[in-house]
Design a protein that fits this description.
The chain has 367 residues and is α/β, with parallel strands linked by helices. The protein contains twelve helices and 18 strands. The protein has helices spanning 41-48, 95-98, 107-110, 160-163, 166-180, 196-208, 220-229, 242-249, 265-273, 297-302, 317-329, 348-356, and strands spanning 2-8, 16-22, 29-39, 57-58, 62-70, 82-85, 124-126, 129-133, 143-147, 151-154, 188-192, 212-217, 233-236, 255-260, 275-283, 306-309, 339-343, 362-366.
Length: 367
């Protein structure tokens, strides 16, 4: 079948929205009509060349839609189901999956991170070339073929604009707070970076009941949104000294948990510096693949601080997305407010530019 899709033909160049040929789903795969797709920093990293990628590549990995066709042996979803994409679909049988750590599934290294479907290869062709599926999803398109386990069914009464960011920004941010940090509500929390993931860390801390949630950013709009999402204080890092401001807001001790959603060398150093003795830094930000950070080892050991990586919410996507939908239905989780900018598919490059400019919230492509 024919589908319009946003293709990256060369890193460092704009995406090209054009017609491509999409094969029918094979065994264990489904065809989804895309209704909404969030525009994420991972897409921007691929476009900029921060992460080396083989091109041509169809971008988009954060989205939702309606199941339109099934391949053989599909049993978890039905035609007409509304689904949210899980771009890290676990195999369920490897060691890490059996340890209930599916975000570390061994199959992902061989398929998803090579921009292939779990069954191998691609189902897209354009200009007589095979086109890779970014993160095995490729949802900047009218239609996408994905693995059955990469689609999580959701209630049909939730808007697609609300669902768009659920499968990446929301699960990553809220999961970092509730799964990786396991916040109990007693902690003083700092969130560095109030973008799509950072706003959801703020939400996770609010849901946990934390009394002090300090959002840090260098832009006014993200900080304004952070206040709406539950931050009790906001700090402009361009005008305030974190080494003075954070202790003054945390009884002089420093934060119990600092979440670094940026993942730069400077922010990790800042995060460790403002964490209290015995505190923890949780890093969710995936920066350039060549980014390095140095840690002052003496105070790190002396004060028994911890540095933890949290990937894709550090949980189990099927269960976590269902829980997030329940929280949304109960009015405890903001989803509609995340879609602060909406675009058509042919405006995808505008959406990426706005993301790079840190305009706050999440840009969402709607069909």
């Amino acid at each position: 079948m024919k589908t319009n899709v946003a293709i990256l033909w060369e890193q460092g160049q704009p995406l090209s929205v054009e017609e491509a040929e999409l094969e029918p789903p094979r065994a264990g795969e489904i065809l989804v009509e895309i209704k909404a797709a969030g525009v994420c920093h991972s897409d921007l990293h691929a476009v900029r060349g921060d992460w080396r990628q083989r091109t041509p590549l169809a971008l988009g990995h954060e989205g939702a839609g309606v199941v339109r066709a099934l391949g053989e042996n599909v049993s978890r979803v039905r035609v007409g189901d509304h689904v949210v994409f899980c771009w890290a679909p676990p195999c369920g049988v490897c060691r890490t999956c059996l340890e209930k750590r599916p975000v570390l599934c061994e199959r992902l290294d061989r398929t998803t991170y090579r921009n292939q479907l779990p069954a191998g290869g691609t189902r897209l062709r354009a200009r007589a070339q095979d086109v890779g599926h970014f993160n095995g999803t490729a949802c900047f398109a009218d239609y996408a073929v994905v693995a059955e386990e990469g689609a999580i069914t959701v209630p049909p009464d939730v808007s697609f604009a609300a669902l768009a960011t659920l499968g990446c920004a929301v699960i990553t941010g809220v999961g970092a707070a509730l799964n990786a940090a396991q916040l109990t509500g007693k902690e003083h929390v700092v969130v560095i970076g109030a973008g799509g993931v950072g706003l959801n860390v703020v939400q996770g801390a609010r849901i946990a009941g934390c009394e002090k949630i300090i959002a840090v950013d260098t832009k006014h709009r993200p900080l304004e949104l952070a206040g709406n999402f539950g931050a009790t204080e906001t700090v402009d890092a361009t005008t305030e000294d974190l080494m003075k401001t954070v202790p003054s807001l945390t009884d002089g001790r420093g934060a119990d948990f600092v979440f670094d959603t940026v993942g730069a060398s400077e922010t990790i150093q800042q995060a460790l510096a403002i964490t209290r003795k015995g505190g923890t830094v949780v890093v969710t930000g995936l920066a350039r693949t060549d980014t390095m950070a140095s840690v002052p080892l003496f105070p790190f050991v002396l004060h028994e601080k911890r540095l933890v990586g949290s990937f894709y919410g550090s949980g189990q996507a099927v269960n976590d997305i269902s829980r997030l939908i329940d929280l949304y239905g109960a009015g405890k989780l903001k989803l509609d407010e995340l879609a602060s900018r909406t675009y058509r598919l042919d405006q995808v490059n505008e959406a990426l530019t706005a993301l790079a400019s840190s305009e706050g919230g999440r840009g969402v492509i709607l069909w």
